[in-house]
User: Fold this.
Amino acid sequence: MAQGFLDAWALVFSFDVDLYEIIFLSLRVTISAVIIAALIGLPLGAWLAVNRFYLRRYVIAVLNALMGLPPVVVGLFVYMLLSRSGPLGGFGLLFSPGAMIIAQVIIITPLIASLSHQTIRDLWAEYHDLLISMNTTRAQRIMALLWDGRRALLTATLAGLGRAIGEVGAIMIVGGNIEHSTRVLTTAIALETGKGNFAFAMGLGLVLIALAIIINLMIHMIGKTERAGTW
Assistant:
């Protein structure tokens, strides 16, 4: 075990080409997915908080339920969409980073939207009378609330990043874990462990743990800043 840790750290600090290729691909896929999911989820959550319509409560309940979507089910759904016999098969996205991004967007968008809805709902209750008295449009209200709640919304986005970076099921299905193409941290760990290459797998695991710690520290720091009332 001790030798495995030493070998893993040696790989990390020797800037092993294969290791860092996997790391950079993981970050590219995950960050791209989080940006897209935030562009969808944040306005969606704000829109649900500001607007009142029939079946609104049921829509919110479904959105909250989708936070627990099983990743393998999402992977299967995206696989069926992007396969040659699927409706989007002509784009040739299956077993590519694009397919992995699509799967992650589907997984984390409900999480970001639900958390942002909770934040904007509280802000809307606080600023409702003020924004109504100023004759603002719905779009202006949403933009104002998104800006005022930016710290909490950034925390929600980081929560999506934390979930996406450790995802393996859907990524394995739609990406195929192809070397130099779709192999990311989580799928590479599973593969290298199965091959008995524990040093390489542990090196990847150390990087994944480090990223998870960094994300959680950022969430903690943002939350602490918000409670202190400073920006």
Remarks:
- The chain has a mean pLDDT of 85.
- The domain at 28-186 is CATH 1.10.3720.10 (MetI-like fold).
- The CA atoms of residues 90 and 135 lie 47 Å apart.
- The longest helix spans residues 97-133.
